[in-house]
Write the structure tokens for this entry.
Amino acid sequence: MTPATGPLNGARMATLVTPRRATPAAAPGAGEHRHHPPVPRALWETLVEDLEAAHHHDPAARSRLEVALGYPGVHAIWVYRVAHRMWADPALRLPARLLSQLARAATGVEIHPGATLGRRMFIDHGMGVVIGETAEVGDDVVLFHGSTLGGRSMRHGKRHPTVGNGVVVGAGAKVLGPVVIGDGAQIGANAVVVRDVPAGAIAVGVPAQIRMPARDFDPAVDDPAIFI
């Protein structure tokens, strides 16, 4: 994977993304950052995981039925899962785009069907979330309302962020360009991120400044800037 601004080599990724558990499949080559297992999962299993993720992350969720019927972020992800599979067939790309636009009108969430989203993603509240075509998002990621995984260039090629596993993107945050957000990073509310964020780091402000949390860091007391 090569961002528009230059090659993403293995050494750089090693500093940004923590090692993942070994899988039976062959490990990706140097410089690659993969989030998905090589064997496609059944669509139904993935949709159920999305439902369980929303129920797990939101303390306001009283039941899975409530989440399935009343959570626009979940609905947007579900429609994306279908549209993304359609996008793999060049003959279905126009219907995939139209389906994604219907989801945008219904939920307020715009996810390009060409984007790559990992498992158990949760979009809280949903309204105003935008995810661009070349964005790559890992597993167990949480996006809050008004957040954007967008581009800084109108050129073809990789122009949207790569987001690692377990990342939280706060309300109104903008992550722009082919930057890499490391595993477990937190992007503060309304932050504007235009450079890489290391694994486990916190990015706050405009433009975002990188902080590494202290060992006894308590965001509820020590750093209200990351409130989401």
Summary: The chain has one domain: 41-226.
